[in-house]
Design a protein that fits this description.
Elements (H helix, E strand, L loop, with lengths): L6 H29 L3 H31 L1
Length: 70
C-alpha cells in the first residue's frame, strides 16, 4: 500500500521544493524592484536577485543531472 521513497527521490523532491521557494522569492524580489525608489535598496535587491539566480541555476543543474543518471 505504501511505497518506500528512496533517498535519491527524497533529495529530488526537496530540491524541487527549494527551487519553487527560490522562484517565489525571485518573483517577490522583482516586484519589490519595480516599486523601489531608494538607490541603496535597489542595490540590495540587485545583489539578492543575483544570489537567487545562482541558487536556481545550481538547483536546476542538480535536478537535470539526477534525471540523466536514471
Amino acid at each position: 500500500m505504501f511505497r518506500r521513497i528512496s533517498k535519491q527521490e527524497r533529495e529530488r523532491r526537496a530540491a524541487k521544493a527549494e527551487l519553487e521557494a527560490a522562484m517565489q522569492a525571485m518573483r517577490a524580489n522583482e516586484n519589490a524592484f519595480k516599486e523601489a525608489q531608494d538607490p541603496f535598496y535597489i542595490e540590495q535587491l540587485t545583489y539578492q536577485h543575483a544570489a537567487l539566480m545562482c541558487r536556481c541555476r545550481a538547483l536546476l543543474r542538480m535536478l537535470r543531472s539526477d534525471g540523466e543518471e536514471s
